[in-house]
């Protein structure tokens, strides 16, 4: 259940490493607009950090969905409020949209 929380620590560590190493890309990661070409691993640590944070969000949403479904199937569906159904819908939308967002960030910002 706590795998999503455990993935945030490596994400923060990779982000910190990328801050200390420095990516050397100026104000943007897009290569034609960046001032210094990036040859180090700072950008790679930053990319890995973003992907770990996205994976953590997906796992947290899956955990929330399974918690809601387990309460629905245990005869509590008549007592579940509308806000729980809204959380369920939001979690499903997050799971379906987050991989697309991660791919868009990787392709547009990092050109990799």
Automatic annotation (TrEMBL):
Q: Which residues form the Cytochrome oxidase subunit I profile domain?
A: 1-112
One of the record's GO cellular component terms: mitochondrial inner membrane
The UniProt catalytic activity note for this protein reads:
4 Fe(II)-[cytochrome c] + O2 + 8 H(+)(in) = 4 Fe(III)-[cytochrome c] + 2 H2O + 4 H(+)(out)
Function text: Component of the cytochrome c oxidase, the last enzyme in the mitochondrial electron transport chain which drives oxidative phosphorylation. The respiratory chain contains 3 multisubunit complexes succinate dehydrogenase (complex II, CII), ubiquinol-cytochrome c oxidoreductase (cytochrome b-c1 complex, complex III, CIII) and cytochrome c oxidase (complex IV, CIV), that cooperate to transfer electrons derived from NADH and succinate to molecular oxygen, creating an electrochemical gradient over the inner membrane that drives transmembrane transport and the ATP synthase.
Q: In which pathway does it act?
A: Energy metabolism; oxidative phosphorylation
Q: What cofactor does this one take?
A: heme
> What name goes with this protein?
Cytochrome c oxidase subunit 1
């Amino acid at each position: 259940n706590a795998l999503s929380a455990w993935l945030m620590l490596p994400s923060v560590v990779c982000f910190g490493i990328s801050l200390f190493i420095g990516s050397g890309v100026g104000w943007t990661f897009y290569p034609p607009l960046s001032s210094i070409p990036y040859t180090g691993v700072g950008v790679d640590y930053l990319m890995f950090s973003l992907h770990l944070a996205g994976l953590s969000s997906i796992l947290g949403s899956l955990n929330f969905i399974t918690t809601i479904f387990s309460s629905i199937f245990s005869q509590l569906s008549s007592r579940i409020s509308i806000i729980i159904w809204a959380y369920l819908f939001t979690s499903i939308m997050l799971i379906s949209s987050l991989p697309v967002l991660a791919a868009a960030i990787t392709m547009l910002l990092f050109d990799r």
